[in-house]
Design goal:
It is a single chain. The protein is an alpha+beta fold. The protein folds into 3 domains: 92 residues, Beta Barrel (OB fold (Dihydrolipoamide Acetyltransferase, E2P)); 283 residues, BirA Bifunctional Protein, domain 2, CATH 3.30.930.10; 135 residues, Gyrase A, domain 2. It contains 16 helices and 22 strands. A hairpin with a 2-residue loop joins strand 2 and strand 3. The chain binds aspartic acid (ASP). Aspartic acid binds next to strand 21 and strand 22.
Length: 596
Protein backbone atom coordinates (compact mmCIF):
# COMPACT_ATOMS: atom_id res chain seq x y z
CA UNK A 1 0.00 0.00 0.00
CA UNK A 2 1.43 3.36 -1.01
CA UNK A 3 -0.48 5.20 1.68
CA UNK A 4 -2.88 4.62 4.51
CA UNK A 5 -4.14 8.19 4.77
CA UNK A 6 -4.24 11.36 2.67
CA UNK A 7 -2.56 14.68 3.41
CA UNK A 8 -5.87 16.39 4.20
CA UNK A 9 -7.52 14.28 6.82
CA UNK A 10 -5.45 13.93 10.00
CA UNK A 11 -6.54 15.86 13.11
CA UNK A 12 -5.77 15.92 16.85
CA UNK A 13 -8.03 12.88 17.27
CA UNK A 14 -5.51 10.87 15.23
CA UNK A 15 -2.56 11.61 17.53
CA UNK A 16 -0.60 8.45 18.26
CA UNK A 17 -1.63 6.64 15.06
CA UNK A 18 1.04 5.30 12.75
CA UNK A 19 0.28 6.38 9.18
CA UNK A 20 1.80 6.38 5.71
CA UNK A 21 1.28 9.40 3.46
CA UNK A 22 2.32 10.04 -0.14
CA UNK A 23 2.50 13.31 -2.02
CA UNK A 24 4.61 16.19 -3.29
CA UNK A 25 6.99 18.41 -1.38
CA UNK A 26 5.49 21.87 -1.23
CA UNK A 27 8.28 23.35 0.87
CA UNK A 28 11.22 22.36 3.03
CA UNK A 29 12.22 24.31 6.15
CA UNK A 30 15.62 23.40 7.45
CA UNK A 31 16.17 24.69 10.97
CA UNK A 32 19.45 22.91 11.68
CA UNK A 33 18.48 20.21 14.13
CA UNK A 34 14.93 20.16 12.83
CA UNK A 35 13.60 19.79 9.31
CA UNK A 36 9.97 20.40 8.40
CA UNK A 37 8.48 19.38 5.08
CA UNK A 38 5.02 20.36 3.85
CA UNK A 39 3.66 17.37 1.97
CA UNK A 40 0.83 18.04 -0.49
CA UNK A 41 -1.69 15.88 -2.28
CA UNK A 42 -5.14 16.57 -3.73
CA UNK A 43 -6.69 16.57 -0.28
CA UNK A 44 -4.46 18.99 1.57
CA UNK A 45 -1.10 19.58 3.18
CA UNK A 46 0.41 17.79 6.17
CA UNK A 47 3.61 18.74 7.95
CA UNK A 48 6.31 16.08 8.16
CA UNK A 49 8.77 16.58 11.01
CA UNK A 50 12.31 15.21 11.12
CA UNK A 51 13.50 15.75 14.70
CA UNK A 52 16.68 15.03 16.66
CA UNK A 53 15.20 11.61 17.43
CA UNK A 54 15.26 10.60 13.76
CA UNK A 55 18.15 8.46 12.54
CA UNK A 56 21.14 10.12 10.91
CA UNK A 57 20.30 8.41 7.60
CA UNK A 58 16.76 9.72 7.68
CA UNK A 59 17.89 13.25 8.44
CA UNK A 60 20.37 13.16 5.61
CA UNK A 61 17.66 12.03 3.23
CA UNK A 62 15.40 14.86 4.41
CA UNK A 63 18.22 17.29 3.79
CA UNK A 64 18.31 16.34 0.11
CA UNK A 65 14.64 16.97 -0.59
CA UNK A 66 13.65 19.60 -3.11
CA UNK A 67 10.36 21.16 -4.09
CA UNK A 68 7.92 18.82 -5.88
CA UNK A 69 9.83 15.65 -4.99
CA UNK A 70 7.40 12.76 -4.66
CA UNK A 71 7.56 11.09 -1.26
CA UNK A 72 6.18 8.29 0.78
CA UNK A 73 6.52 8.90 4.48
CA UNK A 74 5.60 6.73 7.45
CA UNK A 75 5.46 7.95 11.02
CA UNK A 76 3.35 8.71 14.04
CA UNK A 77 0.83 11.54 14.26
CA UNK A 78 1.79 14.03 16.97
CA UNK A 79 0.37 17.27 18.31
CA UNK A 80 2.20 20.22 16.87
CA UNK A 81 4.11 22.59 19.07
CA UNK A 82 3.33 25.70 17.08
CA UNK A 83 -0.03 25.28 15.43
CA UNK A 84 -1.10 26.62 12.03
CA UNK A 85 -4.69 27.84 12.23
CA UNK A 86 -4.85 28.41 8.47
CA UNK A 87 -5.00 24.78 7.39
CA UNK A 88 -7.28 21.97 8.62
CA UNK A 89 -4.33 19.72 9.50
CA UNK A 90 -2.49 22.56 11.21
CA UNK A 91 -2.67 21.10 14.70
CA UNK A 92 -0.73 17.95 13.96
CA UNK A 93 2.45 16.75 12.29
CA UNK A 94 3.98 13.40 11.41
CA UNK A 95 7.13 12.36 13.25
CA UNK A 96 8.71 10.58 10.32
CA UNK A 97 10.27 7.16 10.85
CA UNK A 98 10.61 5.96 7.26
CA UNK A 99 11.06 8.03 4.13
CA UNK A 100 10.96 6.80 0.59
CA UNK A 101 11.75 9.18 -2.27
CA UNK A 102 9.45 7.93 -5.05
CA UNK A 103 10.66 10.46 -7.57
CA UNK A 104 12.82 13.54 -7.81
CA UNK A 105 11.71 16.75 -9.47
CA UNK A 106 13.38 19.41 -11.54
CA UNK A 107 13.02 22.87 -10.05
CA UNK A 108 9.50 23.97 -11.00
CA UNK A 109 9.29 27.06 -13.23
CA UNK A 110 6.97 28.86 -10.78
CA UNK A 111 5.87 28.44 -7.20
CA UNK A 112 3.09 25.97 -6.81
CA UNK A 113 1.20 27.64 -4.01
CA UNK A 114 -2.11 29.40 -3.48
CA UNK A 115 -0.73 32.55 -5.10
CA UNK A 116 1.65 31.62 -7.87
CA UNK A 117 4.38 33.90 -9.18
CA UNK A 118 3.94 32.38 -12.65
CA UNK A 119 2.50 34.51 -15.47
CA UNK A 120 -0.39 33.20 -17.55
CA UNK A 121 1.75 31.86 -20.39
CA UNK A 122 4.11 30.02 -18.11
CA UNK A 123 1.34 28.50 -16.07
CA UNK A 124 -0.43 27.33 -19.24
CA UNK A 125 2.74 25.80 -20.64
CA UNK A 126 3.14 23.82 -17.42
CA UNK A 127 -0.56 23.47 -16.79
CA UNK A 128 -0.04 20.09 -15.08
CA UNK A 129 1.96 21.95 -12.41
CA UNK A 130 -0.55 24.78 -12.27
CA UNK A 131 -3.24 22.19 -11.61
CA UNK A 132 -1.38 21.11 -8.47
CA UNK A 133 -2.35 24.46 -6.97
CA UNK A 134 -5.40 24.14 -4.75
CA UNK A 135 -7.18 27.18 -6.22
CA UNK A 136 -7.13 25.68 -9.68
CA UNK A 137 -7.85 22.16 -8.50
CA UNK A 138 -10.89 23.36 -6.57
CA UNK A 139 -12.41 24.68 -9.80
CA UNK A 140 -12.13 21.24 -11.37
CA UNK A 141 -13.65 19.66 -8.28
CA UNK A 142 -16.54 22.09 -8.52
CA UNK A 143 -16.93 21.29 -12.20
CA UNK A 144 -17.08 17.59 -11.46
CA UNK A 145 -19.71 18.09 -8.79
CA UNK A 146 -21.71 20.34 -11.09
CA UNK A 147 -21.74 17.84 -13.97
CA UNK A 148 -22.53 15.04 -11.53
CA UNK A 149 -25.54 16.91 -10.11
CA UNK A 150 -26.76 17.76 -13.61
CA UNK A 151 -26.72 14.04 -14.40
CA UNK A 152 -28.44 13.18 -11.14
CA UNK A 153 -31.24 15.70 -11.70
CA UNK A 154 -31.85 14.85 -15.34
CA UNK A 155 -31.69 11.11 -14.68
CA UNK A 156 -34.33 11.53 -11.98
CA UNK A 157 -36.48 13.35 -14.52
CA UNK A 158 -36.23 10.44 -16.96
CA UNK A 159 -33.67 11.90 -19.37
CA UNK A 160 -31.37 9.54 -21.31
CA UNK A 161 -27.77 10.55 -21.89
CA UNK A 162 -27.07 9.67 -25.51
CA UNK A 163 -23.82 10.31 -27.36
CA UNK A 164 -23.91 11.83 -30.82
CA UNK A 165 -21.05 11.74 -33.34
CA UNK A 166 -18.18 14.18 -33.38
CA UNK A 167 -17.46 13.76 -37.07
CA UNK A 168 -20.44 15.36 -38.77
CA UNK A 169 -21.19 17.71 -41.65
CA UNK A 170 -20.54 21.39 -42.00
CA UNK A 171 -23.76 23.38 -41.49
CA UNK A 172 -24.39 26.90 -42.73
CA UNK A 173 -25.89 29.63 -40.52
CA UNK A 174 -23.71 29.11 -37.49
CA UNK A 175 -20.22 30.12 -36.58
CA UNK A 176 -17.22 28.94 -38.59
CA UNK A 177 -16.65 25.16 -38.50
CA UNK A 178 -13.58 23.21 -37.58
CA UNK A 179 -13.13 20.67 -40.36
CA UNK A 180 -11.42 17.29 -40.62
CA UNK A 181 -10.30 15.85 -43.95
CA UNK A 182 -11.54 12.38 -44.82
CA UNK A 183 -8.79 10.01 -46.03
CA UNK A 184 -11.28 7.46 -47.31
CA UNK A 185 -13.31 10.04 -49.20
CA UNK A 186 -10.74 12.16 -50.99
CA UNK A 187 -11.61 15.83 -51.25
CA UNK A 188 -14.34 15.53 -48.62
CA UNK A 189 -14.40 16.90 -45.09
CA UNK A 190 -16.17 16.25 -41.88
CA UNK A 191 -16.97 19.15 -39.59
CA UNK A 192 -16.86 19.05 -35.82
CA UNK A 193 -20.29 19.83 -34.35
CA UNK A 194 -21.01 23.40 -33.26
CA UNK A 195 -23.76 21.74 -31.23
CA UNK A 196 -25.63 18.45 -31.63
CA UNK A 197 -28.74 20.48 -32.60
CA UNK A 198 -30.05 18.52 -35.57
CA UNK A 199 -28.99 15.19 -34.09
CA UNK A 200 -30.93 15.76 -30.89
CA UNK A 201 -33.95 16.70 -32.98
CA UNK A 202 -33.58 13.42 -34.87
CA UNK A 203 -33.48 11.63 -31.51
CA UNK A 204 -36.87 13.17 -30.80
CA UNK A 205 -38.16 11.87 -34.15
CA UNK A 206 -36.74 8.53 -32.98
CA UNK A 207 -38.98 8.65 -29.91
CA UNK A 208 -36.26 9.10 -27.24
CA UNK A 209 -38.55 11.66 -25.58
CA UNK A 210 -36.05 13.15 -23.13
CA UNK A 211 -32.41 13.44 -24.15
CA UNK A 212 -29.38 15.10 -22.68
CA UNK A 213 -25.66 14.99 -23.22
CA UNK A 214 -22.72 16.73 -21.61
CA UNK A 215 -20.87 17.27 -24.82
CA UNK A 216 -17.94 19.03 -26.43
CA UNK A 217 -18.87 21.55 -29.12
CA UNK A 218 -16.55 23.36 -31.50
CA UNK A 219 -16.73 26.85 -32.98
CA UNK A 220 -13.95 28.51 -34.90
CA UNK A 221 -14.54 32.05 -33.65
CA UNK A 222 -12.32 34.78 -32.33
CA UNK A 223 -11.73 34.12 -28.66
CA UNK A 224 -12.63 36.14 -25.61
CA UNK A 225 -12.59 35.55 -21.87
CA UNK A 226 -15.85 33.64 -22.05
CA UNK A 227 -15.14 31.73 -25.26
CA UNK A 228 -12.99 28.75 -26.13
CA UNK A 229 -12.79 26.99 -29.52
CA UNK A 230 -13.93 23.81 -27.83
CA UNK A 231 -16.37 24.11 -24.99
CA UNK A 232 -18.84 21.93 -23.16
CA UNK A 233 -22.58 22.11 -23.38
CA UNK A 234 -25.27 20.50 -21.31
CA UNK A 235 -27.43 19.77 -24.31
CA UNK A 236 -31.07 18.84 -23.74
CA UNK A 237 -34.19 18.11 -25.78
CA UNK A 238 -37.73 17.05 -24.90
CA UNK A 239 -40.76 15.84 -26.88
CA UNK A 240 -44.41 16.76 -26.45
CA UNK A 241 -43.62 19.98 -24.66
CA UNK A 242 -44.43 23.64 -24.84
CA UNK A 243 -42.13 26.46 -23.85
CA UNK A 244 -43.63 26.50 -20.35
CA UNK A 245 -42.69 22.83 -19.75
CA UNK A 246 -39.10 23.51 -20.68
CA UNK A 247 -38.82 26.64 -18.56
CA UNK A 248 -40.21 24.73 -15.57
CA UNK A 249 -37.97 21.70 -16.04
CA UNK A 250 -34.76 23.69 -16.32
CA UNK A 251 -35.62 26.23 -13.71
CA UNK A 252 -35.87 23.13 -11.53
CA UNK A 253 -32.42 22.04 -12.59
CA UNK A 254 -30.91 25.42 -11.79
CA UNK A 255 -32.62 25.48 -8.44
CA UNK A 256 -31.22 22.01 -7.70
CA UNK A 257 -27.70 23.09 -8.67
CA UNK A 258 -27.82 26.28 -6.60
CA UNK A 259 -29.16 24.38 -3.63
CA UNK A 260 -26.82 21.40 -3.53
CA UNK A 261 -23.66 23.13 -4.74
CA UNK A 262 -23.92 26.67 -3.38
CA UNK A 263 -26.44 26.09 -0.60
CA UNK A 264 -28.60 28.89 -1.99
CA UNK A 265 -32.38 28.85 -2.43
CA UNK A 266 -33.03 30.92 -5.52
CA UNK A 267 -36.44 32.51 -5.96
CA UNK A 268 -38.68 31.69 -8.94
CA UNK A 269 -37.03 33.06 -12.07
CA UNK A 270 -38.62 36.26 -13.33
CA UNK A 271 -39.30 36.40 -17.04
CA UNK A 272 -38.43 39.39 -19.15
CA UNK A 273 -39.23 39.80 -22.81
CA UNK A 274 -36.34 40.43 -25.15
CA UNK A 275 -37.98 43.77 -26.01
CA UNK A 276 -38.02 44.87 -22.37
CA UNK A 277 -34.46 43.66 -21.84
CA UNK A 278 -33.26 45.73 -24.77
CA UNK A 279 -35.37 48.75 -23.92
CA UNK A 280 -34.48 48.88 -20.23
CA UNK A 281 -30.97 47.42 -20.15
CA UNK A 282 -29.73 47.59 -23.76
CA UNK A 283 -28.80 43.92 -23.59
CA UNK A 284 -30.41 40.55 -24.11
CA UNK A 285 -28.50 39.36 -21.07
CA UNK A 286 -29.15 42.06 -18.49
CA UNK A 287 -27.28 42.03 -15.21
CA UNK A 288 -30.21 42.30 -12.83
CA UNK A 289 -28.19 42.32 -9.63
CA UNK A 290 -28.94 46.03 -9.66
CA UNK A 291 -31.53 48.39 -11.15
CA UNK A 292 -30.40 51.61 -12.83
CA UNK A 293 -32.74 50.94 -15.73
CA UNK A 294 -32.78 53.14 -18.80
CA UNK A 295 -35.18 56.01 -19.13
CA UNK A 296 -36.04 57.01 -22.70
CA UNK A 297 -35.96 60.79 -22.99
CA UNK A 298 -36.55 60.73 -26.73
CA UNK A 299 -37.15 58.00 -29.28
CA UNK A 300 -38.09 58.71 -32.87
CA UNK A 301 -37.23 55.25 -34.08
CA UNK A 302 -39.77 52.59 -33.10
CA UNK A 303 -38.19 49.17 -33.42
CA UNK A 304 -38.52 45.63 -32.06
CA UNK A 305 -37.36 46.78 -28.62
CA UNK A 306 -39.71 49.71 -28.27
CA UNK A 307 -42.59 50.36 -30.61
CA UNK A 308 -43.57 53.67 -29.05
CA UNK A 309 -42.47 57.11 -30.12
CA UNK A 310 -41.22 59.16 -27.17
CA UNK A 311 -41.32 62.92 -27.65
CA UNK A 312 -38.13 64.60 -26.50
CA UNK A 313 -38.30 66.19 -23.06
CA UNK A 314 -35.77 68.75 -24.29
CA UNK A 315 -36.90 71.79 -26.29
CA UNK A 316 -34.72 72.68 -29.27
CA UNK A 317 -31.48 74.40 -28.42
CA UNK A 318 -28.71 71.85 -28.05
CA UNK A 319 -27.76 70.62 -31.51
CA UNK A 320 -26.65 67.16 -30.41
CA UNK A 321 -30.00 66.39 -28.76
CA UNK A 322 -32.03 68.18 -31.44
CA UNK A 323 -30.57 65.97 -34.14
CA UNK A 324 -30.64 62.75 -32.12
CA UNK A 325 -33.08 59.97 -32.90
CA UNK A 326 -32.77 58.49 -29.44
CA UNK A 327 -31.80 59.94 -26.05
CA UNK A 328 -31.52 57.60 -23.08
CA UNK A 329 -30.29 58.02 -19.52
CA UNK A 330 -29.51 56.25 -16.29
CA UNK A 331 -29.62 57.58 -12.74
CA UNK A 332 -26.67 56.66 -10.54
CA UNK A 333 -27.91 56.96 -6.99
CA UNK A 334 -25.81 59.09 -4.67
CA UNK A 335 -23.09 59.70 -7.26
CA UNK A 336 -23.48 63.48 -7.60
CA UNK A 337 -20.20 63.61 -5.68
CA UNK A 338 -18.43 62.56 -8.87
CA UNK A 339 -15.64 65.01 -9.59
CA UNK A 340 -14.97 66.58 -12.93
CA UNK A 341 -12.07 64.18 -13.31
CA UNK A 342 -14.24 61.14 -12.68
CA UNK A 343 -16.82 62.38 -15.19
CA UNK A 344 -14.01 62.86 -17.72
CA UNK A 345 -12.95 59.26 -17.11
CA UNK A 346 -16.50 58.09 -17.79
CA UNK A 347 -16.60 60.20 -20.93
CA UNK A 348 -13.37 58.61 -22.14
CA UNK A 349 -14.82 55.23 -21.27
CA UNK A 350 -17.91 55.65 -23.46
CA UNK A 351 -15.84 57.20 -26.26
CA UNK A 352 -13.52 54.20 -26.53
CA UNK A 353 -13.79 52.66 -30.01
CA UNK A 354 -15.24 49.43 -28.56
CA UNK A 355 -18.17 51.45 -27.21
CA UNK A 356 -18.24 54.28 -29.71
CA UNK A 357 -20.35 57.00 -28.07
CA UNK A 358 -19.72 60.56 -29.26
CA UNK A 359 -19.92 62.11 -25.81
CA UNK A 360 -21.57 62.01 -22.42
CA UNK A 361 -23.98 64.52 -20.93
CA UNK A 362 -24.40 64.59 -17.15
CA UNK A 363 -26.61 66.29 -14.62
CA UNK A 364 -26.17 66.44 -10.86
CA UNK A 365 -29.06 66.86 -8.50
CA UNK A 366 -27.83 69.16 -5.76
CA UNK A 367 -28.85 69.11 -2.11
CA UNK A 368 -31.39 71.93 -2.63
CA UNK A 369 -33.02 69.99 -5.49
CA UNK A 370 -31.57 72.20 -8.23
CA UNK A 371 -30.09 70.43 -11.23
CA UNK A 372 -26.65 71.38 -12.51
CA UNK A 373 -25.68 69.91 -15.83
CA UNK A 374 -23.07 69.98 -18.55
CA UNK A 375 -25.75 71.43 -20.87
CA UNK A 376 -26.92 74.19 -18.52
CA UNK A 377 -26.44 76.88 -21.07
CA UNK A 378 -28.96 75.29 -23.46
CA UNK A 379 -31.77 74.52 -21.02
CA UNK A 380 -33.74 76.29 -18.33
CA UNK A 381 -33.86 74.97 -14.76
CA UNK A 382 -37.49 74.13 -15.55
CA UNK A 383 -36.46 71.69 -18.27
CA UNK A 384 -33.81 70.21 -16.00
CA UNK A 385 -36.47 69.71 -13.35
CA UNK A 386 -38.53 67.75 -15.89
CA UNK A 387 -35.43 65.62 -16.46
CA UNK A 388 -35.04 65.08 -12.72
CA UNK A 389 -38.65 64.04 -12.42
CA UNK A 390 -38.49 61.71 -15.44
CA UNK A 391 -35.41 60.06 -13.97
CA UNK A 392 -36.95 59.80 -10.53
CA UNK A 393 -33.75 61.41 -9.28
CA UNK A 394 -33.19 62.61 -5.71
CA UNK A 395 -30.73 65.12 -4.31
CA UNK A 396 -27.28 63.58 -4.51
CA UNK A 397 -27.99 61.55 -7.67
CA UNK A 398 -26.05 61.72 -10.91
CA UNK A 399 -27.87 61.46 -14.24
CA UNK A 400 -25.87 60.21 -17.24
CA UNK A 401 -27.25 60.75 -20.73
CA UNK A 402 -26.28 59.32 -24.12
CA UNK A 403 -27.80 60.10 -27.49
CA UNK A 404 -27.36 59.20 -31.12
CA UNK A 405 -28.98 58.47 -34.44
CA UNK A 406 -29.53 54.75 -33.97
CA UNK A 407 -31.57 53.70 -30.93
CA UNK A 408 -30.11 50.19 -30.73
CA UNK A 409 -26.54 51.47 -30.91
CA UNK A 410 -27.09 54.01 -28.15
CA UNK A 411 -28.82 51.39 -25.98
CA UNK A 412 -25.76 49.16 -26.27
CA UNK A 413 -23.48 52.06 -25.31
CA UNK A 414 -25.71 52.92 -22.39
CA UNK A 415 -25.59 49.26 -21.38
CA UNK A 416 -21.80 49.43 -21.09
CA UNK A 417 -22.04 52.64 -19.09
CA UNK A 418 -24.62 51.09 -16.76
CA UNK A 419 -22.40 48.05 -16.16
CA UNK A 420 -19.40 50.30 -15.55
CA UNK A 421 -21.35 52.34 -13.00
CA UNK A 422 -22.64 49.11 -11.43
CA UNK A 423 -19.06 47.92 -10.99
CA UNK A 424 -17.84 51.25 -9.66
CA UNK A 425 -20.70 51.38 -7.18
CA UNK A 426 -19.99 47.84 -5.96
CA UNK A 427 -23.34 46.53 -7.16
CA UNK A 428 -21.95 43.49 -8.99
CA UNK A 429 -21.09 41.25 -6.08
CA UNK A 430 -19.89 37.83 -7.29
CA UNK A 431 -21.49 36.13 -4.33
CA UNK A 432 -24.91 37.46 -5.16
CA UNK A 433 -26.91 35.75 -7.91
CA UNK A 434 -29.73 37.17 -9.97
CA UNK A 435 -31.28 34.72 -12.43
CA UNK A 436 -33.97 35.28 -15.02
CA UNK A 437 -35.41 34.01 -18.26
CA UNK A 438 -35.30 36.28 -21.28
CA UNK A 439 -38.12 35.21 -23.62
CA UNK A 440 -39.76 36.17 -26.90
CA UNK A 441 -36.60 36.77 -28.90
CA UNK A 442 -37.05 38.00 -32.45
CA UNK A 443 -36.77 35.20 -35.03
CA UNK A 444 -34.35 37.17 -37.17
CA UNK A 445 -31.74 39.82 -37.00
CA UNK A 446 -30.50 41.88 -39.88
CA UNK A 447 -26.92 41.23 -40.93
CA UNK A 448 -25.20 44.28 -42.39
CA UNK A 449 -22.38 42.05 -43.54
CA UNK A 450 -24.56 39.59 -45.42
CA UNK A 451 -27.29 42.12 -46.25
CA UNK A 452 -30.02 39.69 -45.27
CA UNK A 453 -31.99 38.40 -42.32
CA UNK A 454 -30.21 35.76 -40.24
CA UNK A 455 -31.72 33.43 -37.67
CA UNK A 456 -31.18 34.99 -34.26
CA UNK A 457 -31.12 31.62 -32.50
CA UNK A 458 -30.93 29.01 -35.26
CA UNK A 459 -33.02 28.08 -38.30
CA UNK A 460 -34.88 25.29 -36.46
CA UNK A 461 -36.54 27.64 -34.00
CA UNK A 462 -40.29 27.92 -34.20
CA UNK A 463 -42.00 31.28 -34.60
CA UNK A 464 -44.63 32.19 -32.00
CA UNK A 465 -47.88 30.83 -33.47
CA UNK A 466 -49.57 34.23 -33.29
CA UNK A 467 -46.75 35.79 -35.32
CA UNK A 468 -46.79 33.22 -38.15
CA UNK A 469 -48.92 35.44 -40.45
CA UNK A 470 -46.19 38.11 -40.19
CA UNK A 471 -43.70 35.73 -41.85
CA UNK A 472 -45.08 36.83 -45.21
CA UNK A 473 -45.57 40.52 -44.51
CA UNK A 474 -42.99 41.64 -41.94
CA UNK A 475 -40.58 38.81 -41.09
CA UNK A 476 -38.24 41.13 -39.17
CA UNK A 477 -40.90 41.63 -36.50
CA UNK A 478 -41.71 37.93 -35.98
CA UNK A 479 -40.99 36.68 -32.49
CA UNK A 480 -39.66 33.21 -31.75
CA UNK A 481 -40.49 30.67 -29.10
CA UNK A 482 -36.94 31.09 -27.88
CA UNK A 483 -35.55 31.70 -24.41
CA UNK A 484 -32.27 32.27 -22.63
CA UNK A 485 -31.39 31.75 -19.00
CA UNK A 486 -29.36 34.71 -17.78
CA UNK A 487 -27.46 34.91 -14.50
CA UNK A 488 -25.62 38.07 -13.42
CA UNK A 489 -25.45 39.33 -16.99
CA UNK A 490 -24.14 36.04 -18.36
CA UNK A 491 -26.13 33.97 -20.82
CA UNK A 492 -25.74 30.54 -19.25
CA UNK A 493 -28.15 28.73 -21.52
CA UNK A 494 -30.64 29.10 -24.28
CA UNK A 495 -32.96 27.19 -26.53
CA UNK A 496 -36.26 27.13 -28.30
CA UNK A 497 -39.34 25.21 -29.30
CA UNK A 498 -38.52 23.73 -32.69
CA UNK A 499 -40.33 23.61 -35.95
CA UNK A 500 -41.54 20.04 -36.44
CA UNK A 501 -43.19 20.14 -39.82
CA UNK A 502 -41.34 20.12 -43.10
CA UNK A 503 -43.48 22.88 -44.65
CA UNK A 504 -42.78 25.54 -42.03
CA UNK A 505 -39.13 24.53 -41.95
CA UNK A 506 -38.97 24.97 -45.73
CA UNK A 507 -40.50 28.42 -45.42
CA UNK A 508 -37.99 29.50 -42.78
CA UNK A 509 -35.12 28.35 -44.98
CA UNK A 510 -36.61 30.43 -47.80
CA UNK A 511 -36.73 33.57 -45.66
CA UNK A 512 -33.12 32.92 -44.72
CA UNK A 513 -32.27 32.98 -48.40
CA UNK A 514 -31.78 29.29 -49.18
CA UNK A 515 -33.07 28.04 -52.52
CA UNK A 516 -35.14 24.83 -52.18
CA UNK A 517 -32.16 22.94 -53.67
CA UNK A 518 -29.70 24.40 -51.15
CA UNK A 519 -32.08 23.67 -48.29
CA UNK A 520 -32.50 20.12 -49.55
CA UNK A 521 -28.78 19.63 -49.91
CA UNK A 522 -27.90 20.98 -46.47
CA UNK A 523 -30.89 19.98 -44.38
CA UNK A 524 -32.60 17.30 -46.51
CA UNK A 525 -31.92 14.71 -43.82
CA UNK A 526 -33.89 16.71 -41.26
CA UNK A 527 -36.79 17.69 -43.48
CA UNK A 528 -37.02 14.13 -44.69
CA UNK A 529 -37.15 12.88 -41.10
CA UNK A 530 -39.96 15.35 -40.40
CA UNK A 531 -42.05 13.48 -43.00
CA UNK A 532 -42.11 10.41 -40.75
CA UNK A 533 -44.03 11.71 -37.77
CA UNK A 534 -41.88 14.24 -35.93
CA UNK A 535 -43.33 15.00 -32.47
CA UNK A 536 -43.60 18.57 -31.22
CA UNK A 537 -40.32 19.16 -29.41
CA UNK A 538 -37.99 21.74 -27.94
CA UNK A 539 -34.95 22.06 -25.77
CA UNK A 540 -32.02 24.11 -24.74
CA UNK A 541 -28.32 23.96 -24.05
CA UNK A 542 -26.29 25.35 -21.19
CA UNK A 543 -22.68 26.40 -21.45
CA UNK A 544 -21.16 24.24 -18.72
CA UNK A 545 -17.91 26.22 -18.58
CA UNK A 546 -19.74 29.51 -18.13
CA UNK A 547 -22.14 28.16 -15.55
CA UNK A 548 -19.32 26.63 -13.50
CA UNK A 549 -17.14 29.74 -13.71
CA UNK A 550 -20.08 31.78 -12.44
CA UNK A 551 -20.45 29.43 -9.48
CA UNK A 552 -16.70 29.64 -8.87
CA UNK A 553 -16.68 33.45 -9.14
CA UNK A 554 -14.13 33.37 -11.96
CA UNK A 555 -13.56 36.07 -14.54
CA UNK A 556 -12.59 33.65 -17.28
CA UNK A 557 -13.99 30.25 -18.24
CA UNK A 558 -10.40 29.15 -18.77
CA UNK A 559 -9.87 28.66 -15.07
CA UNK A 560 -12.44 25.89 -14.84
CA UNK A 561 -11.08 23.99 -17.86
CA UNK A 562 -8.23 21.54 -17.24
CA UNK A 563 -6.33 22.25 -20.44
CA UNK A 564 -7.64 25.43 -22.09
CA UNK A 565 -6.48 27.18 -25.23
CA UNK A 566 -5.07 30.68 -25.34
CA UNK A 567 -6.46 33.67 -27.23
CA UNK A 568 -4.89 32.53 -30.49
CA UNK A 569 -6.56 29.15 -30.14
CA UNK A 570 -3.27 27.46 -29.19
CA UNK A 571 -2.65 24.83 -26.60
CA UNK A 572 0.76 26.06 -25.50
CA UNK A 573 1.42 22.93 -23.46
CA UNK A 574 0.90 20.52 -26.38
CA UNK A 575 2.03 23.15 -28.86
CA UNK A 576 -1.09 22.49 -30.91
CA UNK A 577 -2.06 23.04 -33.66
CA UNK A 578 1.03 21.77 -35.47
CA UNK A 579 2.26 20.97 -38.94
CA UNK A 580 1.77 17.55 -40.57
CA UNK A 581 4.39 15.36 -42.21
CA UNK A 582 4.27 15.38 -46.00
CA UNK A 583 3.30 11.68 -46.02
CA UNK A 584 0.29 12.42 -43.86
CA UNK A 585 -0.74 15.31 -46.10
CA UNK A 586 -0.39 13.10 -49.18
CA UNK A 587 -2.55 10.42 -47.64
CA UNK A 588 -5.22 13.01 -46.96
CA UNK A 589 -4.92 14.51 -50.43
CA UNK A 590 -4.07 17.87 -48.93
CA UNK A 591 -1.71 20.46 -50.28
CA UNK A 592 -0.36 23.13 -48.01
CA UNK A 593 0.54 26.44 -49.59
CA UNK A 594 3.54 27.71 -47.63
CA UNK A 595 2.92 30.97 -45.79
CA UNK A 596 5.21 33.86 -46.62
N1 LIG B 1 -28.15 24.23 -30.02
C1 LIG B 1 -28.43 25.48 -29.40
C2 LIG B 1 -27.11 26.20 -29.10
O1 LIG B 1 -26.07 25.61 -29.16
C3 LIG B 1 -29.18 25.35 -28.13
C4 LIG B 1 -30.55 24.83 -28.36
O2 LIG B 1 -31.32 25.42 -29.11
O3 LIG B 1 -30.86 23.80 -27.76
O4 LIG B 1 -27.12 27.37 -28.78
Amino acid sequence: MYRTRTCGELRLTNVGERVTLAGWVQSVHNLGALTFVDLRDRYGITQLAFTEDASEELRQKAGKLGREYVLQATGVVAERYSKNKNIPTGEIEILVEELNILNESAIPPFTIEENSDGGDDLRMKYRYLDLRRPVVRQNLELRHKFAFEVRRYLDEQGFLEIETPVLVNSTPEGARDFVVPSRMNPGQFYALPQSPQTLKQLLMVAGMDRYFQIVKCFRDEDLRADRQPEFTQIDCEMSFVEQEDILQMFEGMSRHLFKVIKGIDIPALPRMTWADAMKNYGSDKPDTRFGMEFVELKNNQPDNASREIVESIFPDGFGVFDGAVYIGAICAEGQAVYTRKQIDQLTDFVKRPQIGAKGLVYARVEEDGNVKSSVDKFYTQETLQVLKQKMNAKPGDLILILSGDDAMKVRKQLCELRLEMGSRMGLRDKNKFSCLWVIDFPMYEWSDEEQRLMAMHHPFTSPKPEDIPLLDTDPASVRANAYDMVINGVEVGGGSIRIHDAKTQQKIFEILGFTPEQAQQKFGFLMNAFKFGAPPHGGLAYGLDRFVSLFAGLDSIRDCIAFPKNNSGRDVMLDAPGFLEQAQLDELNLQVVPQE
